[in-house]
Design goal:
Elements: E1 21-25, E2 29-31, E3 41-43, E4 48-51, E5 57-58, E6 81-83, E7 86-88, E8 98-106, E9 127-129, E10 137-143, E11 149-156, E12 164-169, H1 170-176, E13 184-191, E14 216-217, E15 233-240, H2 243-254, E16 261-264, E17 272-276, H3 282-294, E18 301-304
Parallel strand pairs: 5-14, 8-12, 9-11
Antiparallel strand pairs: 1-4, 2-3, 6-7, 8-13, 9-12, 10-11, 10-13, 15-17, 15-18, 16-17
Length: about 300
């Protein structure tokens, strides 16, 4: 996203390969805390150009994000927050949200890095960054110059470049047809999913399927909506002063989930911690969190081991 976090690299042009480069980015680096605390640490790097894959790829087979009802937590939703001297307030709801303005995109420089809510950014996913929409939100983005549309899931903060309203993934920007220009005039409209039901929407005009057999197909993320978590993500369900209390909770959790549940011995504070995981998918994590709360178990939080 044209303004939130640190991520990786600028590619140079090699003979016989097409290099796709985006506009100059100014993304504060968001360092995710070791738990899902409301604290966000922001570092602002110097301007560096972003880029797409090393060679041109076909993204027409990558599906749009499919809206579904999700639990919104503190992760990525600290409000107010300040970046580059300006204060932003996260909206309490995205219902009825419509906005027009410039969209930018981000790719290789941030590929594999954490987004504002702790998920892993993939330039091949269908995600986006927005300054004030609650995370997560689903939005339909229309390129006003050609009518193409995509549906993306907002899981990041930015863009913090003046005059830009949303930062799309490389794949979303390519589907909308503005990679080379770097920015495009767009309309952003929030989509409300039904409770606990994935919502499909009529197909919208997108980038045509590439027929050139020399163009490789881009890899499809396991979940294009961007739910991937770092490999060391755990849900901590409780911390106790006695091993018996921790083991009791461990046994309760073992009857609710097939994920590994373990008791972590005391380190510095003499507490026995009960953790579930590792968890690689934020959708799984959110569903598990809701399940524990419905069973009146202690309120869990995310930790990174």
């Amino acid at each position: 996203m044209q303004g939130s976090r640190g991520k990786a690299a600028l590619f140079t042009v090699a003979l016989g390969l097409l290099f796709l480069s985006a506009c100059t980015t100014q993304k504060p680096v968001v360092q995710q805390p070791r738990s899902d605390s409301s604290q966000i640490i922001v570092n602002v790097p110097t301007d560096v150009k972003d880029s797409g894959p090393e060679q041109d790829v076909d993204v027409s087979h990558i599906p749009d994000a499919v809206p579904r009802k999700e639990v919104r937590t503190r992760a990525g939703n600290k409000s107010p927050y300040k970046v580059l001297g300006k204060t932003y307030h996260v909206m309490p709801t995205d219902k009825g949200f419509v906005q027009e303005g410039k969209a930018s995109w981000y790719g290789n420089k941030f590929h594999g890095k954490r987004t504002a809510n702790g998920e892993i950014y993939s330039m091949y996913g269908m995600t986006a960054a927005h300054k004030t929409l609650p995370i997560p939100s689903y939005v339909k983005v229309t390129n006003l110059s050609n009518g193409r549309q995509v549906i993306v899931r907002v899981n990041d903060r930015g863009p913090f470049h003046k005059g830009r309203v949303i930062d799309l993934s490389y794949t979303a920007a390519k589907k909308l047809g503005y990679l080379k220009q770097g920015t495009a005039s767009v309309r952003v409209e929030a989509i409300q999913p039904l409770d606990n039901v994935a919502v499909s929407h009529p197909a919208a005009p997108q980038l045509p399927v590439q027929s050139n057999s020399t163009v490789a197909r881009a890899p499809v993320p396991e979940n294009p909506a961007g739910y991937e978590l770092p490999k060391n993500t755990f849900l901590q369900a409780g911390a106790f002063s006695t091993p018996a209390a921790a083991e009791k909770l461990r046994d309760q959790l073992g009857g609710l989930t097939s994920l590994p549940v373990k008791v972590i011995p005391p380190s510095e504070d003499a507490l026995y911690r009960v953790q579930v995981g590792p968890i690689g998918d934020n959708l799984v994590l959110m569903d598990l969190r809701s399940l524990l709360e419905k069973n009146r178990l202690p309120s869990p939080h995310v930790v990174y081991d």
